[in-house]
Amino acid sequence: MPVSLFEVNANVPDIRISREQLQPEADPPDGKRPAAPVQVSAIRSFLLSRGNSAIADRGFHWLMVLCALSIFGIVVLIAVELVLRSKLAWHQFGFQFFFSAFIDPETKLPQYWDPVNGHFSALPFIYGTLVSSFLALLLAVPLAVGVAVFLTEMCPQAVRGPLAFMTELLAAIPSVIYGLWAVFVLVPLLREHVNPLLIKLLGWTGLFGDDNPTGLGFLTAGVILAVMILPIISSLTREVMTAVPHSQREAVLALGATRWEMIRMGVLRNARIGIVGAIILGLGRALGETMAVTMVIGNNPQIVRSLLGNGSSMAAVIANEFAEASGDLYLSALMEIGLALFVVTIIVNAFARVLVWAVTRGAPAQVH
Amino acid sequence: MPTERKLRAQIRAGIDGAATGLAVISTLLVVAPLLAIFAYLLYKGASSLSWAFFTDIPKPVGEAGGGMANAIAGSGILLAIGSLIGVPIGIGGGIFLAEFGRGTKMANAVRFTADVLNGVPSIVMGIAVYSLIVVPQGHFSALSGGVALGIMMIPTVCRTTEEMLLMVPHAVREAALALGVPNWRSVLAITVKTASPGIITGCMLAFARVAGETAPLIFTAFGNMGWSSNLSEPIAALPLQIYVYAISPYDEWHRLAWAGALVLIVLIVTAVSLVRYVTSRGVLKGAS
User: Fold this and answer.
1) SS3 (DSSP) at A193
2) CB spacing of B160 vs A53 below 8 angstroms
3) CATH homologous superfamily of B53-281
4) What is the pLDDT of residues B28-50, one digit of tens each?
5) CATH of the domain at A318
6) A249 is in which domain, residue-wise?
7) How far is B199 from chain A (nearest CA, A)?
8) Which residue of B has its CA nearest to A68?
9) Is pLDDT of A305 > 70?
């Protein structure tokens, strides 16, 4: 009897064929051979005796199918729960939740997020999410593509392994540790040294106001988000760059190009769809990033023009206010923001995956 | 003219050198924050690490000392529940993708959905589990936190399992089937067993990923300043405790947050390095 699920039955009979069985019998002199008896070999009788495993096979098959369908189930579950809980806010505000806000008749100022009076609008959070994410992309994409180019084409072989490992290690650091470091190191650094410089040099653009000397704000959030999405963009870019066939590189070099021209024309041009996909994937990660952004963005539900001003983002407001949300409308409004975040990240991620798949089609699958 | 050609060649060589320089600079700029974070973590966290850190629970504000023992234990419990949910279902999904559904449309759809699900923000998972489990139960609980972590593990485990199973050579499967081993037995005892080092490292990768997740735990496990042994009570978790301490105004708690961050990062880096080591050495020594 088998001892466990993972041991194959060891009592297989000896199936070695003897020498007599191999040699055919000599023909009898009168040319007539007796009818050959049906010989059931040992292995055949053993297999026949074991019975049919069709039921077990089918059961196992369907169990595995169920596990695979659970992935669809998770998506459906999240969607259903979010839609159900945000119904209240949807009935109350409708589509205007995302596009307009209640204007206070006395001060003529928009009241975006007023739990006391029940006026909710997602505008400042959408603004904050977009501003911090695009700032992060602006900072991260050149660096990530530069790192990818260096690691793939220019790096000496000995250093490549450790450097690639270090870039991937950046992806493994939890968001809360990035937030911790940002609060205690990045914020003072920006507050003391970088922000005054920016205000002095670029204050004329109107984007760098000096009325928020805390060091928190969209810029800090953008910087820490850039550090966080850099490894994703970089590793995916490396993957699509290595998927470009060597013949392309050799062809450009054969025509007399310098190394940078070879990279530009032979590799980056062929991989640009995948690189765009990698960038969009990084954007998707930046849109949904919660902990680090919550700790440095200032948590002010207003739309502020200055990049140094405090704001909030969709994930940050959920993280901050969800646990203490009193009142069904408050909770429902937060759920609706969560639903919007869910839908947006799904669309962005799906689009990015299609782009990356189009370039690396045929290459072995990798998890990111 | 020859001098014009020489000038152009020099410009092109100059651009090449500039591009190389920019690539090197961007690599340094990327590696610098990583080293800065690690160095600062070591510097700030090592001074607060003591035996008391690993055995004490948090003390009230104003008293010195205290530790994060309950947070470490709580993280362990949450990860255990999460693994119980995530690992079997994930491996099952991976087996389906590699063995039964290879090349079919449904397998492509499952793979795509798993990748997309990997990109969904963890806070959305948290509020979905809140709505699913916490609201009907009426209280925060360790169970809901474990479920949230578990469903975050499923897509990652599924994809890495599929990747590892695809590497098992066909000859191994065919040999088992040719000997009359039932299909389910062949998949489990032969194919999965051959790929098991890789599958285990895939689970470790998912484990390391969810070990650092805070957002889904904020409104499911909620955090606890003391020990908790009941699965239906709120429970502390290491990243959650780090977050609560970091945004507090007390210096003592900041110190503890740094120590906790050091512990967390050491755990995660160890797991990731192990994964890297095992997969780079060649996973399937039993196959060939």
Assistant:
1) helix
2) no
3) MetI-like (1.10.3720.10)
4) 988 888 888 888 888 888 887 77
5) 1.10.3720.10
6) 86-360
7) 13
8) B93
9) yes
